[in-house]
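A protein record pairs a chain with a discrete description of its three-dimensional fold. The following entry can be read in just this way.
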Amino acid sequence: MKRYVIHGFGRHRERTRTALAHACLAAVWLAAAAGSSAAQVASPHIENAVAEFSALDKVTARISKLEVPLNKTATFGSLRITPRACYTRQPTEPPKTTSFVEVDEVLLDNKEKRIFTGWMFAESPGLNAVEHPVFDVWLTGCSSPIRTSAAPQQPDKAAHEPGAAGPPPDAEPLRRRRVPR
């Protein structure tokens, strides 16, 4: 019985490389299999008509709640906030509220300067919040559901389809053989 040594770089270097290569291949295969099953089981998102924000005026320490319909613009101080999309999950799923937002600053000469364009996440407000010297804006939620996205594929059907990741359910397990070096 041969013993494979994972640590050390002495005379066991070839065995270590082979063991590490096999471990890496197994990890890649497991990650691909987990990714394909996660995509099949992913919950549909709910499109909403209204994005809800909180905004902080740092000078007066005033926090305001803003409810902005999609593709409409709300003004807070010198900022103009325009949500383009707002998604939530089903109530039975872990929360994940996201919104694609554009924020412009109105300058003193009445020109607009885009200071933020991107996705905001209600569960991680510090991740992509608007940070301005005078104002902060972050997403708090979405309301007024419009529709739910299409239901995901059932895992049983996806596993039997040609081209699906992983072996078919009735296939024999792969047998590995060792080749002496």
